[in-house]
Amino acid sequence: MKGIWADLKMHRTAQGDTRIEALFDADPARARDFCAEADDLVFDYSKTTIDAAARDLLLDLARAAGIEDRRDAMFAGQKINETEDRAVLHTALRNLSGRVEVDGRDVMEGVRETHARMTGFARDVRTGAFRGQGGPITDVVNIGIGGSDLGPLMATLALAPYHDGPRTHFVSNVDGADIADTLADLDPATTLVIVASKTFTTIETMTNARTARGWMAKTVSQPAAQFAALSSAVELTAEFGIDSSRVFGFEDWVGGRYSVWGPIGLSLMLAIGPEDFDAFLSGGAAMDRHFRNADLAGNLPVLLALTGIWHHQICGYPTRAVLPYDNRLIRLPAYLQQLEMESNGKRVAMDGSDLDMPSGPVVWGEPGTNGQHAFYQLLHQGTMPVPCEFILAARGHEDGLSHHHILLAANCLAQSEALMRGRSVEEARELMRGKGFAGAELERQARHRVFPGNRPSTTLLMPQLTPRTLGRIVALYEHRVFVEGAILGINSFDQWGVELGKELALKVEPLLTGGESPGHDPSTRHLASLFRAMRG
Ligand code: F6P
């Protein structure tokens, strides 16, 4: 692969300051040729500096990395998460008619059984057959963090038009403000609390869960009866006092950030109903089929990954912005931050050697058009290009407000056009002359109004953000992360990098309460003593 990496870098150097617009001039078919489709989901990467030669090299890279074999190994249940000796089978959660074995055991029976129990429970809650002490459940509070929060939170917000179940709330932060603000307006007698934690040991989640139990115990005689648990550590859920009929387990081959498809998605299922939840699953499964069957050159996850590799590892752009022009995708950037940065933010390759190239980029973003009035200044005129990933639906859900949607879409397309085209100094001069400027002042003012352009972006276009389409999009990004990780030769499925901070938090705690805790650096000790003094 070294040769292909070198060729890619040479090609990038040879491109010099070739402009994206020149690629369109040279290839009249570029707008169509640099677009790929999976059913009615379209990925347009024409407004990037990837040309035909770069694309060929990138596809060679994917082939040389053995993407297809690695992909098949993942779907077959092989233990590709080598540092944890685990299979990676979140895909099994959304393909309920499939058949997968791990260690010679068919795992699908358990998956189907849990899915059926979740469905039954969701129906009972939604119809009122399952009741709290004060009557039918009006509010559901999902307590979890990271993958046990961001997936269902992101999807529940995204699919708000499909809500017809109880109100759904999410508590994640150990900051007491989070749970206090959430519970403030809720009636414990009609609230269901879901404790979502794969390990059932995460300190934030368990602290919040105990606080919620105390809150409920003040009014409800049997608080545990209004708790459910989602976890792969089912014995710990029993210790917490949750009846096994409301415990929904999953196996260790479902990574936290990949877990929305199974029990961790219960709050979503309660909000939108089992049928729409199943549509979300079927969307994910459809993207799986596309990923497995489409030729690499027309394979959306592969192309999305190769675009990412081109921008980060070859062009050297340190971040990428996810810019959904859909207000309901407000938590998608945060969800993708965990998915991408926890998966591919690694410095050691699978074989334990140092990575000899940058690992995954910083991922960030915010829905448009709000971001336009906040950080787009830097996107257009800052010194470091930020590849932008626009996401847009052709239709919204607000039938009477379609003029809003047209305006939203116009802004999305205008931004990618503006990023690519920019505005030359001559155009800026013309503009300023029209405003009456002349001479040195015209020159000075014009320079501030120049947009360098040639800033790359991609656009993901869908007909409408339905449960099925959301499933396809989430699976698309999951597989993108997998392909990027496989090309870099890293394990995208562990997260050892989150451990040290967790361990030290436990050791720092005594410093803040006046206890003994040896071994801390002077700055940490100093800050802790200031903290104690401020608390009085
Ligand atoms: O932050 C690390 C992490 O392990 C994530 O990978 C995970 O999604 C999150 O914590 C929550 O873990 P759990 O579901 O076990 O509470």
Architecture overview:
With 536 residues, the chain is α/β, with parallel strands linked by helices. Helix content is 48%, strand content 12%. It has 21 helices and 15 strands. The strands form four sheets. It has a six-stranded mixed beta sheet, sandwiched between helices. Strands 8-7-9-10-11 form a five-stranded parallel beta sheet, with helices on both faces. β5 (131-132) and β6 (135-136) form a beta hairpin. α7 (150-158) runs parallel beside α11, α7 (150-158) packs antiparallel against α14 (332-344) and α13 crosses α19 (467-488). The longest helix is centred in the last third of the chain and has 22 residues, at 467-488. The protein is globular, with a radius of gyration of 25 Å. The mean pLDDT is 97. 6-O-phosphono-beta-D-fructofuranose is lined by residues 145-148, 197-199, 202, 205, 256-257, 342, 495, 498.
